[in-house]
Specification:
Layout (H helix, E strand, L loop, with lengths): L2 E7 L4 H19 L7 E7 L5 E2 L2 E2 H6 L1
Length: 64
Amino acid sequence: MPFIQITFIDGRTPEQKEQLIAEVSKTVSSVLEAPLETVRVCLNEIPSTHWGIAGKSIQRRQNE
């Protein structure tokens, strides 16, 4: 059973997340020749204050 975890900064719409789940599931099913019903996708949304690049949170970098 394939299990895919995707981590990204929050702010996507519910529709975008649904599309992401659908497209990733179809691709993994096809590439791994696994039944679509066995593919699991976990979306991890991280607040921009919890994600850092070069010593600063993304939120702080966006506000500068």
